[in-house]
Amino acid sequence: MEFKNLIVKKDGKIGIITIHRPEVLNAVNIETILEIEKAMHDFDDDKNVYVIIITGEGKSFVSGSDISRLAKMDSLQARKYSQIGQRVFDFIENVEMPVIAAINGFALGSGCELAMACDIRIASEKAKLGQPEVKLGLIPGHAGTQRLARLVGTGKAKELIFTGDVIDANEAFRIGLVNKIVESESIFEEVKNMAKKIIAVGPNAVRIAKTVINRGIDANSKTANSYEMEAFSILFSTDEAKEGLKAFLEKRKPNF
Fold first, then answer.
1. How far is CA 54 from CA 79, 119, 215, 222, in A?
2. What confidence tens digit (pLDDT) does each residue in 97-150 have?
């Protein structure tokens, strides 16, 4: 598939998806979101990709949804748009490999929702995040009401969604919306360094850890703990765990 709105490439074991719509600060539409879905599935099928990075070209991550498209939608079209966005972002959240968002600028509306679907969010010091949909007489439609509340708590999520306020990187870090803030010039280097750290450890362990965390987050503690127990024990049957334990005892780096 030829991508019209994305730049998709590999760097070793890292898959990189860059939203590329500079004329609208990387605002997304249905076509762009479907391209993200295709790129994600391609990387998921590639057994040599261990980590995925999602970012935006230039000074914006994703500035939101393309307002010129939203303004032409009726209720049924808006419902379809919401369904597609939720489906794609759910896939990003639940794909086995870790996904890192490199938030290099505006992450508003759908952009904030895309970032929240990623496992780890690293922000430029110049990043701006928010769910300003109420200023258009709308609400988030790509699961922003749900993910934001889970990440920062219901009180703060309600404040941000009810007011439509846009916050800077420092405030986003303070409330737990982003994991780390870095200088604008070095954001991609920092994100790649984190990706390399993840690649260096047991790939099956990382994927299973992500699955257990995601499955357990909405379960009661007893059920969630049982997920962990079963996954923990299953890993002992893998060559990966045997190599990791042996390498530790032999005081060498494991060969995963």
1. 25, 11, 23, 34
2. 999 999 999 999 999 999 999 999 999 999 999 999 999 999 999 999 999 999
Nearest to 51, CA basis, from 191, 186, 198:
198
Convert the pLDDT of each residue in 94-111 to its tens digit: 999 999 999 999 999 999
Half-sphere exposure (CA, 13 Å, Cβ side) for 71?
Answer: 4
> In the CATH scheme, what is the code of domain 203-249?
1.10.12.10
Instruction: Kindly tell me if the per-residue pLDDT of 1 is higher than 80.
Output: no
The structure's pTM equals 0.96
Angle, helix 110-117 to helix 144-152, in steps of 10 degrees = 60
Q: Give the amino acid at 157.
A: A
Residue 215 identity (one-letter amino acid) = R
| Annotation: CATH topology of 6-199 | 2-enoyl-CoA Hydratase; Chain A, domain 1 (3.90.226)
* Mean pLDDT calculated for residue range 231-255: 96
Alpha-carbon dihedral 221, 95, 172, 69, rounded to 10 degrees: -130
Residues designated catalytic: 113, 133
Domain boundaries, the chain: 6-199, 203-249
Using alpha carbons, select from 103, 178, 182, 180 the residue that is nearest to residue 148: 178
Residue 2 has pLDDT above 90, yes or no: no
Contact 49, 9 (CB under 8 A): no
Asked if 43 and 53 touch (Cβ cutoff 8 Å), the reply is no
